[in-house]
Amino acid sequence: LDGQPEAPRYFAEMKRINRDGPALLGGLVVCYRGEERGDLLALGVEQHPAGAAAAGVYAWQIEPRWVQLVRRPMPLPHLPEPLVGRTVLQLSDLHVGPRVDSGYLIETLQEAARLTPDVVLFTGDFISYRSSAQFDELARVLAHAPRGRLASAAALGNHDFGVAWRQMEVAERVTEVLRSAGVTVLRNDVI
Fold first, then answer.
1. What is this structure's pTM?
2. CA nearest 178: which of 127, 114, 130, 102?
3. Residue 146 class from Cβ within 10 Å (0-12 exposed, 13-18 middle, 19+ buried)?
4. 35-44 long-range contacts, Cβ below 8 Å, gap at least 24?
5. 69 phi and psi, to 5 degrees?
6. Rounded CA gap, 58 and 124, in Å?
7. Whole-angstrom Cα distance, residue 145 to residue 122?
8. What ranges in the chain are assigned the alpha helix state H?
9. Measured between alpha carbons, how far is 117 from 147 in angstroms, rounded to an integer?
10. What is the β-pairing status of strands 68-75 and 24-31?
11. Cβ neighbourhood burial of 167 (10 Å; 0-12, 13-18, 19+)
């Protein structure tokens, strides 16, 4: 963390920034899970004899299709002036493959694109690898993904490395598809 103050000074600075009105990077995050849903699920399992079965149906059929848009201010110290007020859209866990309907993914990505974010960050697990046919399907899905006005970047997730997360050739193919879709892939890199 070159150039960063030691921890006590850093936290004091963050506290001051939060109190005095920080420079804000307006945040947009699309997430698939929320604490409140976990609380509801736990309540159902504890309060009903069929709770375990209900939890299974919930996890298999309901939660994977429950997309939630969350807007969060993101106070960042030393944020360059041109980035103040900009928006970030973070997308994760697409899992293109036999278990996730591509039509559903495309509709969700089109909805996210209407947010017109400044920066789009994809945080891995683009596929759940079963066969090479998934690369073409990933390209088809990503054709509908939002692009940031300033940047679109990605980091691969463990599922993007194939079966048992050890197939580097799968990660290379996912990287090629992402780059062809106009997404900068970060692998031990920064932008």
1. 0.69
2. 127
3. buried
4. 37/63, 37/66
5. -95, 125
6. 23
7. 10
8. 7-20, 35-47, 51-57, 102-113, 133-142, 168-180
9. 8
10. antiparallel
11. middle
Enter the DSSP assignment of 101. -
Q: Which residue has the tokens 């939890």?
A: 55
Three-class DSSP category at 127: strand
- Low-confidence stretches of the chain (pLDDT beneath 70): 1-66
Token couple for 84? 């103040």
Amino acid at 175: T
3-state secondary structure of 4: coil
Q: Quick one: pLDDT at residue 21?
A: 44
pLDDT score for 60: 55
> How do beta strands 24-31 and 151-155 pair?
unpaired
First and final C-alpha spacing in the chain: 16
On the 0-12 / 13-18 / 19+ scale of CB atoms within 10 A, 120 is buried
In the prediction, which pLDDT does 131 show? Answer: 93
The burial class, CB within 10 Å (0-12 / 13-18 / 19+), for 83 is middle
